[in-house]
Amino acid sequence: MKIYTRTGDAGETGLFDGTRVPKDAARVAAYGDVDELNAVLGLALAFVREDDDLRPCLLTIQRDLFTVGAQLADPSARVEAKRGAKAAFTEDKVSQLEEWIDRFEAQLQPLRQFILPGGSKGGATLHLARTVGRRAERRIVALSHEVEIDPLILRYVNRLSDFLFVAARLENLHRRHEEIPW
Fold it and tell me: 71: helix, coil or strand?
């Protein structure tokens, strides 16, 4: 099978249920931003130490983002019916993020002021991931005004940016990069 299909040459793409939509449709923009976030997390993983507690979290999040993207690209909910648990999105995904946030935040100094994004390569990339995640969240919210979106997905992407902020701070702490106050 070739990587190119030529079916998108006229500016349309296919959704999981076979529907053809413009590539700039709100649904495509939403799952495109989720895909971009996943790629930025892949970049962050290139910088995070191999023995770091963040690595398994980031890998789990990457898998979760594939599930989010699949649900957004599937207006008929056929993927979940076909793939079962692998394509399902459950409350425990949000709870897991909250547990990680609490665990990692306990290792950090409390914030008393805003900080500038940056620091180590991994920390700066995680800050970038946070902003891409917020954009993806805005796109998903915009899409939710047009079509029904699983509320768990909205909660997950909201909590995810909080996690990524804490992860960026933790990575900078591990790399001994001081936070720069605003």
Answer: helix
**Domain count across the chain:** 1
Residue 142, both tokens: 């915009």
Residue 181 placed within a domain: no
Whole domain around residue 70: which residue ranges? 12-174
- Give domain status of residue 2, yes or no: no
Report pLDDT digits (tens) over 30-65.
Answer: 999 999 999 999 999 999 988 889 999 999 999 999
150-176 pLDDT per residue, tens: 999 999 999 999 999 999 999 999 999
CATH of the domain at 86: 1.20.1200.10
- Rounded Cα distance between 149 and 72, Å, is 8
Element containing residue 12 per DSSP (H, E): strand 12-14
User: What is the mean pLDDT of the segment spanning 107-130?
Assistant: 96
The gap from C-alpha 174 to its chain's centroid, in whole angstroms, comes to: 22
Q: Dihedral of the CA atoms 89, 107, 35, 150 (nearest 10)?
A: 30
